[in-house]
Amino acid sequence: MSPAGKRFSVAAGTPPTADETGPAESPAPPVPDGPSPAMVKALRQQHVFALDSAFGKARAALSDYEGAMAVVRVVVEAARRDGVDEDTIGSSAMRKHMQVPEDL
User: In the chain, how many domains are there?
Assistant: First the structure.
């Protein structure tokens, strides 16, 4: 009987040969517990750069806003001083989807 035709029998008490069981499976490689320290450091650094950028842009926008509102104050005060009515000032603000600051 050829090895391919040979049958393994538990009752016979003989273990199967390599030909009977097929190729041996190699064990799976170990799975790492988490990202490598270098990966963690790089990811953290990316977040730090992104946070710095976002906060920097927000600070610049806030500074631009504060500067623009200072100009709005000067222009609104000049318009009022020269007799421009409040409806005209308010309409101008509304066209830009803004409101006249209440502290003016």
Answer: 1
- Range of 56's domain? 35-95
**pTM exceeds 0.70, yes or no:** no
For 55-94, give one letter per residue: b (16+ CB within 10 A) or e.
Answer: eeeeeeeeeeeeeeeeeeeeebeeeeeeeeeeeebeeeee
3-state per-residue secondary structure call for 50-68: HHHHHHHHHHHHHHHHHHH
Does 28 have pLDDT greater than 90? no
One-letter amino acid identity for 25? E
89 touches 77 (CB < 8 A): no
